[in-house]
Amino acid sequence: MTDGKPLDGKLALVTGASKGIGAATAKALAAAGAHVVLVARDVKALEEVEDAIHAIGGSSTIAPLDLTEPESIGRLATAVSGRWDALDILVLSAAYLPSLTPVTQIDAKQLNRAFNLNVLATQALLAAFDPMLKRAKSARIVGLTSSVGAAPRAYWSAYGSSKAAFDNILSCYAQEVEKLADIRVAIVDPGATRTTMRARAYPGEDPATVKPPEAVADRLVSLLQSDFPTGHRERIDS
Fold it and tell me: Which long-range contacts (CB under 8 A, 24 or more apart) does 49-55 make?
């Protein structure tokens, strides 16, 4: 550890790293000294995040891919494990928000994409990186959830049900590895945050009335440096 760089020497992987909370968290992790693997589909946006990281003296590697494509996560894990031995931090930020509709009008294609990215990709990431996480001295996983996963809300059923499954998978994994390795899992609801997804869900909202992604990122990086109990859950309200 170097002065001002508490995560120096750590390897972090952040999904959804091209924008919003994922991008802000990736930058904050890099500022704290971690080398960050940036995962998202948008190459140009990833390069902009990487440029911002390099501008503050941080280091990162971009990994452009669609997490819902067959074999993509396996290829990612092979590439990362070929360069590094252990994965210290995994931040699961990527998510897809289907249109807000009554249950009877859910679009099947959108529901399928939500479960592919929010649920199936989560399980695949945990399975693929489990060996690297277990080789870390003290691995930390944070998954970003939503209040509608635990508290159903009218018109949010497609997204909420995918997040309920997301929470369940992470919680089960936390219990399964608790006595096998020092891997701690936290599920965090970022609350109202100024993101593209938020703007889609609340098109009439003034963005200035909700907190910026950087506020969430600061809390996540603080949490990732702590010895929180595995299975920890919290909501970031301010």
Answer: 49/17, 49/18, 49/23, 52/27, 53/26, 53/27
C-alpha span between 182 and 189 (Å, rounded)? 23
- pLDDT of 1 reads 47
Determine the Cα angle at 121 with ends 120 and 127, to 5°.
Answer: 95
Domains detected in the chain: 11-235 (3.40.50.720)
The separation between the first and the last C-alpha atoms of the chain, rounded to the nearest angstrom, is 29
Tell me the backbone φ, ψ of residue 62, rounded to 5 degrees: -90, 145
Q: What is the pLDDT of residues 76-87, one digit of tens each?
A: 999 999 999 999
Compute the distance between CA of residue 193 and CA of residue 195 in angstroms, rounded to an integer: 6
pLDDT digits 0-9 by tens, 201-230: 999 999 999 999 999 999 999 999 999 999
Q: Is the dihedral of CA 77, 80, 83, 87 positive or negative?
A: negative
Catalytic residues: 159
Cα 100 from Cα 140, distance rounded (Å): 32
